[in-house]
């Protein structure tokens, strides 16, 4: 059922797109509220009128009947119905309210009926019985359109001061006149209601346009923003649209930062990739320019050219590694890893470089550590840290790699006795292509991407990396990664 509704909704979503219009909804809400309240008011007026008319009429008849009941007793009518005065009064009253009057004695026998059809008959209706028990009963029969009043005829006071019920006066009056008035009133109220509704629907159309105009302005203004550089201020009328404008401006700001960094990155990449090629070209041109250059010179130049090609290759590999990691956690290949083994093999691999640079490489494993890691990426990240320690060191110098863990995290610390990082550069060293000393980094074979790759890897593993440094004395890089990998919330 729900699936059926959902597929129906999906199918007709585009077709009935207009139903999602804010303007249409405002129009519908105002129109419906107007029609509904118009109808309620109309019914209220008509019903109120009917109720008050019936009440007035009932009160009128009751008052007349009450005075007549007194006259009946005064003239002894309950015992003898020949009194002309009373008979005249009864017919007068029944004419006044266009109804029927029946006088009933204590035996529930009709002794007088203005319609002359029930005289002598017995009436044992509920209202008559209740009236004979000294109760005034009024009733409005909506279906047959008449009001009925039954009240007791109370005799004179006896020696004990008590008045006995001598009979019942039963009056019924038609409400046709009231109904005619109601029909007229209803017709007028309906006309008025229709008029008001039409005015309100027109107003709803106008209002829905006016109320949604700020959104149209906003849409137009946002559409006119052509680039992130565009600082045009967007005006807004409502608090809500102002909040949208604020959110848009914040987004614009963020996109600008992203766009700037993208442009920087593209500029850097082109520059970095062009540098080795330019060197190769210079070397090749100068070789071409030398006629009959000795083989040694050729060999020398060719070695330099190979070095530049290796460098180009390194930059491209690092860039590819970063791009692959930009895909997010889906690019990770997490498996249970013996971290001691992983670090140890990395340290071993870098041994020759350390020896070449006269750097003492110390490996200190505090305990056995097993963690969920992407072995290849983590090994590259750790290798970058140790390699930097070796590259940016003094000769002789040392690099110490310490692995430890608690019940939740593995901790890796790579410290060195090297040149250190100036305070103003610390915040930037993880940026792509950022280098404290370009020429030195180039000399030692850096691409400027190593720390960016390391940081990205650690973050993908939901860990953190910190650096402390005293310029001239060395650096300490501290890495903390959860032992158990918790994937992102989307389950990727
Ligand atoms: P590179 O390939 O140039 O080494 P990285 O991203 O690995 O690039 O490092 C960025 C910069 O941070 C380096 O150029 C260097 O200036 C500085 N740096 C990194 N590690 C160290 C370190 N252990 N000691 C001193 N400076 C370092």
N to C succession of SSEs:
HHHEEHEEEHHHEHEEHEEHHHEE
In one word, what is the shape? rod-shaped
Low-confidence stretches are: none
Bound ligands: adenosine-5'-diphosphate
Number of helical segments with 4 or more residues:
12
- Please outline the major beta sheet: 5 strands, antiparallel
Q: Which class do the helix and strand fractions yield? A: alpha+beta
What share of residues is helical?
55-70%
End-to-end C-alpha gap: 31 Å
Mean pLDDT: 89
Spatial ordering of strands, largest sheet: 2-1-5-4-3
Q: Could you give the count of β-strands?
A: 12
Strand content: 15-25%
Can you tag this structure with a few keywords?
492 residues, 5-stranded antiparallel beta sheet, single chain, alpha+beta, binds adenosine-5'-diphosphate
Précis, in short:
By secondary structure, this protein is an alpha+beta fold.
Q: Topology, pairings included?
A:
Blueprint: H1 2-12, H2 22-74, H3 84-96, E1 99-105, E2 110-113, H4 126-132, E3 137-141, E4 146-157, E5 163-174, H5 176-224, H6 239-289, H7 295-325, E6 335-338, H8 339-356, E7 359-365, E8 370-373, H9 375-391, E9 397-405, E10 409-416, H10 423-426, H11 438-443, H12 450-460, E11 464-470, E12 474-482
This protein binds adenosine-5'-diphosphate.
Residues 384, 388-389, 392, 416, 418-421, 429, 434-437, 441, 446-452, 475 line the site of adenosine-5'-diphosphate.
């Amino acid at each position: 059922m729900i699936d059926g509704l959902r597929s129906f909704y999906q199918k007709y979503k585009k077709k009935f797109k207009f139903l999602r219009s804010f303007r249409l909804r405002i129009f519908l809400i105002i129109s419906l509220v107007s029609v509904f309240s118009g109808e309620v008011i109309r019914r209220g007026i008509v019903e109120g009128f009917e109720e008050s008319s019936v009440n007035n009429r009932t009160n009128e008849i009751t008052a007349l009947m009450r005075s007549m009941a007194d006259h009946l007793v005064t003239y002894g009518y309950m015992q003898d119905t020949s009194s002309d005065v009373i008979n005249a009064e009864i017919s007068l009253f029944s004419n006044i309210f266009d109804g029927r009057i029946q006088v009933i004695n204590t035996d529930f026998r009709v002794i007088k009926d203005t319609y002359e059809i029930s005289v002598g008959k017995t009436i044992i209706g509920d209202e008559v019985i209740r009236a004979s028990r000294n109760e005034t009963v009024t009733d409005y029969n909506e279906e047959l359109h008449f009001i009925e009043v039954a009240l007791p005829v109370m005799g004179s006071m006896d020696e004990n001061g008590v008045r006995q019920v001598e009979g019942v006066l039963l009056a019924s009056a038609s409400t046709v006149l009231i109904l005619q008035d109601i029909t007229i009133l209803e017709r007028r109220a309906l006309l008025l209601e229709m008029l008001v509704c039409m005015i309100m629907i027109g107003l709803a159309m106008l209002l829905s346009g006016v109320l949604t105009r700020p959104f149209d302005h906003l849409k137009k203004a946002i559409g006119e923003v052509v680039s992130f550089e565009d600082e045009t201020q967007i005006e807004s009328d409502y608090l809500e649209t102002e909040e949208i404008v604020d959110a848009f401006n914040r987004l614009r700001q963020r996109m600008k930062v992203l766009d700037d960094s993208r442009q920087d990155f593209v500029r850097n990449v082109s520059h970095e990739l062009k540098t080795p090629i330019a060197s190769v070209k210079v070397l090749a041109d100068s070789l071409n320019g030398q006629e009959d250059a000795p083989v040694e010179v050729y060999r020398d130049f060719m070695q330099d050219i190979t070095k530049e090609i290796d460098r180009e290759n390194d930059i491209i590999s690092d860039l590819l590694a970063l791009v692959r990691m930009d895909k997010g956690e889906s690019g990770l290949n997490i498996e249970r890893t013996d971290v001691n083994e992983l670090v140890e093999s990395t340290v071993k691999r870098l041994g020759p470089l350390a020896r070449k640079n006269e750097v003492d490489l110390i490996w200190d494993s505090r305990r056995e550590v097993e963690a969920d890691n992407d072995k290849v990426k983590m090994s590259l990240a750790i290798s970058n840290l140790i390699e930097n320690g070796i590259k940016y060191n003094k000769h002789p110098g040392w690099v110490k790699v310490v692995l430890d863990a608690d019940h939740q995290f593995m901790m890796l610390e790579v410290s060195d006795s090297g040149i250190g990082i100036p305070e103003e550069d610390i915040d930037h060293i993880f940026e792509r292509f950022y280098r404290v000393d370009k020429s030195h980094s180039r000399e030692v074979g850096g691409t400027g991407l190593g720390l960016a790759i390391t940081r990205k890897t650690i973050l993908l593993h939901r860990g953190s990396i910190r650096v402390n440094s005293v310029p001239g004395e060395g650096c300490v890089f501290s890495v903390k990664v959860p032992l158990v990998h918790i994937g992102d919330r989307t389950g990727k």
